[in-house]
Amino acid sequence: MNPAGADGYEKHPLLNRAVRDVASRGVGVLTAVTHELHHDGRVVRVAHIRPASGVEWSTAADNIQPAY
């Protein structure tokens, strides 16, 4: 896990690259990885992905891998 800045955004090595979400099998460009406070007090890493259609979705950051 990479540290998040004060703004909650992580400088992930796959930012602005094509990634695959293993949970949904969707492919798109990783636009951000945020660190968000869960209701139980723990921090969760959320990946934000934009496919060619332009309708973004989010998934757990651990679910992303480079798209080949």
Main traits of this protein?
five-stranded antiparallel beta sheet, 68 residues, Thrombin, subunit H, 5 strands
Description:
Helix content is 0%, strand content 44%. It has a 5-stranded antiparallel β-sheet with strand order 4-3-2-1-5, with no helix packed on it. The protein has a single domain, classed as Thrombin, subunit H, CATH 2.40.10. The model has no long low-confidence stretch (mean pLDDT 93). Strand 2 (27-37) and strand 3 form a beta hairpin. By secondary structure, it is mainly beta. The chain has strands at 18-21, 27-37, 43-50, 57-60, 64-66. The chain is built from no helices and 5 strands.
**First-last Cα distance:** 22 Å
Count of runs of 4 or more consecutive helical residues: 0
The chain-level mean pLDDT equals 93
Main sheet: strand order? 4-3-2-1-5
**Helical percent range?**
under 10%
- The poorly predicted ranges are none
What is the alpha-carbon Rg in Å? 12 Å
